[in-house]
Amino acid sequence: MYESDAALVVSASDLTGFLECEHLTRLSLEVARGLRSRPAAVDPMTQLVAQHGIDHEARHVQRLRDRGLSVVEIDAPTGKDAAGLRRAQADTLAAMRAGADVVYQATFFDGTWRGHADFLLKRTDRASDLGPWAYDVADTKLARRIKVPALLQMALYGDLLAGLQGVPPELLTVVTGDQQELVFRYSDAEAYARAARDRFQQRLADGELAAPYPNAHCGVCPWRETCTARWEEEDSLSLVAFMRRDHATALAEAGITTVAELAARRPEELPDAVGRTSRERLTQQARLQLAERVTGAPSYEFLPREHGRGFELLPPPSRGDLFFDIEGDPFAGDAGLEYLWGVLDTAGEFTAFWGCDPAAADQSAAERAAFEALVDHLSAVHAADPSMHVFHYAPYEPTRLKTLSARLQTREAEVDRLLRADVLVDLYAVVRQGLRLSKASYSIKQVEDFYRGHTRAHDEEVSDAGESIVAFERWLATRDQALLDQIEAYNRDDCVSTRELRDWLEGRRTELLASGALLRRPEDGDPDGSAENAAAQGLREELEQRLVADLPDTGRTPEQEATWLLAQQLGWHAREARSAWWEYFRLRDLPADELERETAALGPLEGPELVGADKRSQHWRYRFPPQETKVSAGSRFEHLLPAADGTRITSSVVEVDPTAGWVVLSRGSSSPHDHPTGLLPTSPPSDRLFRAALHDLGEQVAGCGVD
């Protein structure tokens, strides 16, 4: 966004930024009008992301050329004058009229909107003003999952492209960071893109742009320090831990705009738009944070006991316990790279499983070897001490174990055994569900104040996950061992901190017991599952061996190749079911207020209101923060209940409005259970018949051959 010839020029990135944060638009507008300067400091992570984006784009250009396509690159306009943009657009139109297969860095400018599409792709099955051909839009994106802003940006390019070729594009293609080409219809995004653009231009005209509020974009925003300083100066409600934006809005409408004002209120004085449980939680959280400001000393309080949550997730200490942390680079390779798996034992011995090799250009083999060695180590320690557990903080570690075992198709059974046995213990869940802390953030570096007497200082070469990634990227370029040493020191400190946290939590558990509380230790799961499943796995493995026993490794006949493929397919249903059950239990373990980011689920639910009833059922309406969700009317979903007692209750969704934030559930009139705090997908369907049919086919081929 900038002013040129007294006119405001805006771009697709300005529009997507507006949808992420309206205050970002305000700041950009002030820069454009000369009212403030853009921050001079450039975050190394932001630079890293930008460079990876450039590299990803360059690789795709080369792939297009390797396909034999003619590629015309448009020179980027220099400066910000309108004449330069019009020249670049004229060059773009000339390349299109000449029939180039690909127009790279196509420029559009209509006097207000400028755009630079990565690629225009020629197609000869549609005519346009250019002749018997037309162009579609394609863009490269580092992300492996496409979000709305990417399509919005491309739809804007499509609208500008239509002005040049006389017809709109039909397709929008996104080339993701893992080289997938995802195709969407322009017509599906056109209306939303135009509505968003109209709203953006209206807000620019009337100046009614929202105040800043923390969101996901803050992590990559150059203005985050500016906004943080403002929140602290204003004592913003956003500083209260786990404050939702819709709650902050409701509080502000009731005249409560600061942490101090919230701390001074009783729960019943808060508006009804903030649910009953949230009113109590937020007022007490504000009081604790305000008290630490005044005294300078951190404090905590115990949350009410819930069966199977909080301190009841904490297993008894064992000599074989391990403390685990991973360092991963989401930009390396096509699927990211877990480059360090760190493990600390109770004797203080640290083991680094490095997923990188200084002698290799491609690090995938090193990652695989490190992953296998790590899983083998965890499995061996567990076999020697079945009472041991592996402690970590937040869900990243088990998520990556599951993801890599499935993607690499190695150690799947071993990872499944560790998960079934409940070997991995998330201390974040213990903290989050068992304690209320006087901190605006419950990150482990903030929680360290309770057991180290201070929060983690940023005085090391590597002091957070972002700096670890930047250091590893530098190592990829230089192979400087000192960089790996810095990363290892950081990872080891995280593992040590995890052990110190576990010990501190044990002390808090003892304190809670001394107050008269009744607490249970969690029961270990069954690493092998049911006897029936174990027997079925044994039969499947035995049949697989019979099918491949006489097959050569290479040079197989078509019949032998078919037999080999059948043998590999015998375990397909088991692998798919394993991933589905892992996801099911992951969602069940989440607290309700973390469901907002899960499109397969819905939550947190608040404010139950009876809106209808008949002889067999009642219709209850619940509020939730507006969110993207796959929950739809007519489907059944499982309840997330306040107490994790293993009970599984389902309800039918009668109506749902994800934008307005309400859902109506049909529940049995005699249901004795608490109201749900969230909705989860039901357990995966049985695939027993499919497995049996495939096994029967395998037996037939093993006995009689393919014919």
UniProtKB/TrEMBL annotation:
Domain of life, per lineage: Bacteria
Phylogenetic placement of the source organism: Bacteria, Bacillati, Actinomycetota, Actinomycetes, Geodermatophilales
Species of origin: Modestobacter versicolor
Pfam families xrefs: RNase_H_2
Domain YprB ribonuclease H-like: 322-505
Name of this protein: Recombinase B
InterPro entries tied to this protein: RecB_nuclease_TM0106_put (IPR019993), YprB_RNase_H-like_dom (IPR038720)
